[in-house]
Write a structure and sequence with these properties.
Layout: E1 3-7, E2 10-12, E3 18-25, E4 34-39, E5 46-51, E6 58-60, E7 68-73, E8 78-83, E9 92-99, E10 111-114, E11 118-122
Parallel strand pairs: 2-11
Antiparallel strand pairs: 1-3, 3-8, 4-5, 4-9, 5-6, 7-8, 9-10, 9-11
Length: about 120
């Protein structure tokens, strides 16, 4: 059974950092891309960053380039999102998602399983 479990969210001040983790089980981890998405109240869910199954290819939304870093440890079935220089506009529920294929397509429609999300609040 596919399971994705996010952790690491919380309250952080602007300019601070958080690392999100996505622990996966129930599928051959390195055969699938994994993405991080976020959704703020009243906003559409959007792709933040995605990573391919095993070749290290990554995607970042323009809004987070240079600040966020996605990585995966296939031996641990875990994907991480290191978030630095956080801004209030980064506040959202962050979701981990499994893609249909090894190569990523970093859109909501390109994912077939979702975690429950973890809340990131960036505020003074």
């Amino acid at each position: 059974q596919v399971q994705l479990a996010e952790s690491g969210g919380g309250l952080v001040q602007p300019g601070g950092s958080l690392r999100l983790s996505c622990a996966a089980s129930g599928f051959t981890f390195d055969h699938y891309s994994i993405g991080w998405f976020r959704q703020a109240p009243g906003k559409e869910r959007e792709g933040v960053s995605c990573i391919s199954g095993s070749d290290g290819s990554t995607y970042y939304a323009d809004s987070v380039k240079g600040r966020f870093t996605i990585s995966r440890d296939n031996a641990k079935n875990t994907v991480y999102l290191q978030m630095n220089s956080l801004k209030p506009e980064d506040t959202a529920v962050y979701y981990c998602a499994k893609g249909f294929y090894k190569e990523y397509y970093c859109s909501v429609s390109g994912q077939d399983f979702w975690g429950k999300g973890t809340l990131v609040t960036v505020s003074s």
